[in-house]
Each structure stands twice: as C-alpha cells, then as structure tokens.
Amino acid sequence: MSAGLVNLGPASRIPLGEGRMFVVGERTVAVFRGRGGQVFATQALCPHRQGPLADGLTGGGRVVCPLHGLQFDLESGQSVGRACGSLETYPVQVSESGDLLVGEPESGRNEAA
Distance (Å, rounded) from C-alpha 15 to C-alpha 68? Predict the structure, then answer.
C-alpha cells in the first residue's frame, strides 16, 4: 500500500451504484462505487444542508443530495449548475487484493462564483 493511503477494507462492502461513509483519521468520507466499478471519495456531508451524501442516489458519475436534490460531480466535486459549494474530493483506488485505499483531500471547497 502506498504511503498516506488508508485501507478501508474490501471494495465489495459497497454495492455497485451506492455509497458508504467511513471515518478516515479526523474526517468522515463518503466512498461511492459506480455501476461500472469505478470508485470515488468525497466529503461525507453536503455543504448546503449537511445531507449525508452516501445516502444519495448515484448515477452517471454524480450523486444527488438526499436532503435538497442538488447534484455533484463525483470526480471533481463540483456542484452541477454551481447551485452550491463544491465538495472536497479524495484520491481513492482499489488495490490488487480488492481493498479500498483512500488518501488526503485533493481539492478544497471552491465556493460558487
């Protein structure tokens, strides 16, 4: 495992098309598995109303906040339509043994202009 990455266990614990929340150090992170097997990691709570993003609907590389319906791009963290602040995103990968590995944040919140 690369330095700076935390092992969250088997990727299979997240069903395809869904997300789960994990505590990584002092942060809570939402990790998603797309229907095609791709993985994404973002901050766990929506910046608008603190909705639990792992409970949101996913598809097409996006997650829909379960509290207010705004959408976020899972790769970039950007709010679709910039109706809300952006999400922090985290590097995430699946190891050769099938474990989820997540690292430090890749982007800070970028407030909509």
Answer: 24
Domain boundaries of the chain, sorted by first residue: 6-102
94-to-6, 9, 49, 112 alpha-carbon distances in Å: 11, 10, 30, 31
Query: Could you read off the pLDDT tens digit of each residue along the chain, which spans 113 residues?
Result: 355 899 999 999 999 999 999 998 889 999 999 998 899 999 999 998 899 999 999 999 999 999 989 999 999 999 998 778 899 999 999 999 999 999 987 654 443 33
pTM: 0.87
* Chain mean position to CA 10: 16
Do 87 and 50 meet the contact criterion of CB atoms below 8 Å apart? no
* Dist CA 82 CA 70 (whole Å): 9
The second-level CATH assignment, the architecture, of 6-102 is: 3-layer Sandwich (2.102)
Distance between CA atoms of 81 and 70, rounded to whole angstroms?
9
Q: What are residue 14's DSSP bridge partners? A: none
